[in-house]
Amino acid sequence: VDCAVEYEIVVVDDFSDQPVDVATLMKTEIAPEEIRTVRTRAPLGIAGARNLGAEVSTGSYLTFLDSDDVLKRGSLSTLLEAASPSRIVFADHEVYQEPLEPFVRRKHQWVPLLADCRNRIDDPFFYCNFIVLPFVIPRLLFQGAGGYPDAGYAGEHVGMYAALAARPDVEFVHVPQALYEYWPRASGYSNSNWVS
Fold first, then answer.
1. Which of 27, 108, 138, 146 has CB 3.0 to 4.6 Å from 174, enough for a Cys bridge?
2. pTM
């Protein structure tokens, strides 16, 4: 966790088989009582769980992490330095997937394509190459966009960001640093990204 900025941590347990044990989940020096946990009454899927987390949080800016993501120390400060009420700030990430060597997925080249992909949300090219994380988004922009679309596929982030990219009053800012680690499952996909 980034100690240079004020933060709030909300963990949404999307009706998992075993309720979340925050102490085990968080590999950090934060005391479990400082983490707010919300458990859904039925599976909402990734979009619904993220929307619920945003709804119960109180911050001016939001960021989301899945169970296979690790935010690097200092990354929130780095992202927030470039933030403003009309900017969505995002960065690169490192991918750790055996048997491959870790590599950095650079994302700056996808910004011009984002508005175009609104009509091709299910296209695996865009889903695999424009995962916006890590990012910060102003709460008011997120709410104004209606949050993540309720969809039974993993591209919910592409749908919302594509809609925002089409707005002339919204700016996407790329920070050219790998600020989080992505550790995909053996299948290559995050289990948390699929609705069963």
1. 108
2. 0.81
